[in-house]
Amino acid sequence: MKFFNAFCSTLLLTFLSIFTSNAQQLENSTLWKISGNGLETPSYLFGTIHITCDATLDANVKKALDETEQLVLELDMDEPNMQAEMMQHLYMKDGLTLKDIVSEEDYEAIDNMLKKHMGISVTMMQTMKPFFLSAALYPKLIDCPMMSFEEELIKVAKQQDEEIKGLETIDFQISMFDEIPYEEQAKDLIRSAKDDLAYDKSMFAKMMKIYKEENISAMIDMMNDETYGSVSKYQDKLLDNRNKNWIPKIGKYAKEKPTFFGVGAGHLAGKNGVINLLRKAGYTVEAVE
Q1: Contact 228, 18 (CB under 8 A)
Q2: Do 192 and 109 form a contact (C-beta atoms < 8 A)?
Q3: So what's the pLDDT on residue 230?
Q4: Residue 201, CB half-sphere, CA atoms under 13 Å: how many?
Q5: Helix (H) / strand (E) containing 46
Q6: Sign of the alpha-carbon dihedral angle for 120, 126, 128, 134
Q7: Which residues of 66-82 are buried (b: 16+ CB within 10 A; e: fewer)?
Q8: 83-116 as b/e, with b when 16 or more CB fall inside 10 Å?
Q9: Local structure of 21: helix, strand or coil
Q10: Vertex 51: Cα angle to 80 and 54 (nearest 5)
């Protein structure tokens, strides 16, 4: 269960966090207070990073968790059927395999990469969607045991006997990937194989540094990278539309009771980022620095 939770979350960070270039400079903070617009008590918005070496929650985050009464993440990661739902969407349709969509040379490069880093041949996984093959390699991009802020937030919520909810469902998230042709998905996997994960490792190291600095605006500049061009064509579906869909849901949850929202930090800044969209909807959103 733990593997599939992390598996799904890391998909969102790398492939759904391909941002627009319309960044708006914001304070360096990953924690924001939401108030006004009819809210009787404030809620909080926290930008997470799905893969990290240190998911320690700082004092401000813990205080915000104490002041709220429910936890809302991108997904309800405490859902017991999550693993089963994920399994239903792992594989390509119509009996396709990786051999059908990449060249023989690229297939061999991917096979060598998986054997080196995972100890398994691609022949054992070749019916999986290319995005999921890429995601299976994420733990290899950092030189430490993989940790997740979502898991830490869930621990606190359970200790406080609070409900855990989601802004989206697994079915909805996976459906977005199905709109991207498998050949396009495979481009990132091929790139990773040809440089033996060198680019991906450097990107994750830079991302973790920027996250530690809480520079959410710089995250947009960093991730607006044409190297991930196979996904950048679909920014409206994978990022902007999702952020817009979240705003009424965030408002609904926050009006029910003070809520702690945890979403990928890449969703916070920018013209179509959650902070700006909440402000447009009439909420006061202030950095907790």
Answers
A1: yes
A2: no
A3: 54
A4: 11
A5: strand 43-48
A6: positive
A7: eebbbbbbbbbbbbeeb
A8: beebeebbebeeeebbeebbeeebbebbbebbee
A9: coil
A10: 105
Query: Phi then psi for 16, rounded to 5 degrees?
Result: -95, -10
Identity (one letter) of the amino acid at 276? N
**Residue 63 neighbours by CB under 8 Å, 6+ apart:** none
Q: Identify the bridge partners of residue 43 per DSSP, sorted by sequence position.
A: 34
Q: Which token pair is 215?
A: 């520079």
Distances (CA, A) of 107 to 102, 183, 259: 6, 12, 46
Whats the size of the chain, residue-wise?
289
Other beta carbons within 10 Å of 7: 18
For the chain, 289 residues long, the average pLDDT of each consecutive 10-residue run is 45 42 70 97 95 94 98 86 79 94 97 96 94 91 91 96 93 81 91 94 91 89 60 70 95 97 93 95 96
Q: Which amino acid is at 15?
A: F
- Name the token pair of 178: 């199905």
- The backbone torsions φ and ψ at residue 163, rounded to the nearest 5 degrees and listed phi first, read -70, 150
Residue indicated by tokens 């540094």: 209
Sheet holding 31-35, edge to edge: 163-168, 70-75, 259-264, 43-48, 31-35, 284-287
pLDDT attached to residue 5: 46
The DSSP code for 163 is: E
Residue 2: predicted pLDDT: 45
Token representation of residue 283: 């909420």
Q: Mention every residue, 6+ apart, whose C-beta is less than 8 A from residue 223.
A: 17, 18, 19, 207, 266
Distance CA 200, CA 125 (A): 21
